[in-house]
Amino acid sequence: MSEDMVTVDPHGSNDSASAQIRRNIYESLIFQDEALELTPGLATEWEATEDTVWNFKLREGTTFHSGQEFTAEDVKATIDRVNDPAVASQVAFLYEMIEEVEVVGDYEVNLHTEYAFAPLPAHLSHNAGGIMSKDLIDKDYQPALDAAGSDVSLEEYYELREAGGDEFQTVADEISEHIGAVTGAETDGTNHLQLADRSPGNSVTLSRFEDFQNGEREFDEVIFRVIPETQARLAELDTGGIDIANEIDTASAERIQNGDATELIESESVRMNYLGFNMEKEPFDDPLVRQAIAHAVDRDEIISGVYDGYGIAAESPLAPDVWGYDENLESIEVDIERAEELLSESSQPDGFTTTLWVNDDPAIVDSAVYIQNALSEIGITVEVQQSEWGAFLDQTANGEHDMFILGWTTVTADADYGLYALFHSNNFGAPGNRSFYKNEEVDALLDEGRTNPDENGRQEAYSEVQQLLIDDSPAVYLNHTSFLLGVNNGSVSNIGLDPVGNIRLENASFSTEE
Q1: Domains and CATH numbers, the chain
Q2: Some GO term, biological process aspect, for this entry: which one (predicted)?
């Protein structure tokens, strides 16, 4: 892997490196297959029995890594935790509409939502929906209560949470800083691998779960090594030091294709790379400045020059394979004269100096250098600042930046996930809206898109909101990259790669030849 995971806690972060590992530890109620179709997971069947009630039948005969039996109580404990304000989860936006988890029986739950929410099954397939055992969750809460010096017992806390109110909020505030200490270090899921060892910054080792009830596996252990430098990953791949190398840069694709013992796996993606603006800082509160920058950036040149032709230009925040995408949108075209005209009419007619923050992904750095050069043509001087991944996420979540480049993968393949987190004003900072963008019309349309049970009504809302986001330019939508994976086919085969970028290990098999 090119990056280290942030945490094994499904509610503790929303980064792709952590998701790649967690999805092998935890099972969700609903799975996505490699074509992003929804299939049974820990729920064998589901249906909306009312506009605001979904019924789920649960898989029987399943045990956690700890040996505890999986039941409806674990589903309730998990969803109640992600929505607990004490946890302050970055992924709470996925499940905040769930008002109650009703345990109907040992293997049946009803999820009651505040409003009709059509994409709920897709949201439940997200890796943040991985079901943790209630035992592990209890083990996380109890030390938090103890560390806060609270005289409230665990059961009393759960009762207060159900009731809500000022007393609960007081206790939640007291324990918030202590939540996650256990779930960030220990795991207890039902999937085919379990946590064996973690060396932060170096590796994570997962071992085979012998009592896994959802299919056979042909391997005993998976080691996720962190090798940030692309050429070092490729060298390890060539020599068989690793079997799989993720996030292959496009410049290395031909080398892997032509290698005697390597093959390149490519997948179109539902990922969007974008240039974001901090709209709480001048001059990015001026739409003319943002639009000028959008007209100055040639997305096709970035694809050809940085990504060697892999991927497509982004017309909107949504990739074409995401439900809700509208192919009839009027996108912003590259036009230097129009960019200069808009800037001359803006609050910065003579240009300005600013910073562009990036992480240490080489393609992102190269994209930043291209943007730096492009904006210099219209009088904007850009300093590129590079940060380590974790620091970059923290700093942009805190609003310390001017501009930044980041990617967002619509892992649910539904427009709600691709737009709500990035552009709704409820999600400033870490949940996704690092542009600190607030537009009441956009908020209203995003709310309409997630609450309207009629599919045509949802599509209309998402078409309108996409056009608004193009015109208002809280970000410049750069490209939808292809995911590239390198595999040493002399040792391993049947590795999958889906449009979300998940490496699918389920069917991996190995050569027995020396």
Answers
A1: 16-176 (3.90.76.10), 193-267+483-510 (3.40.190.10), 268-481 (3.10.105.10)
A2: peptide transport
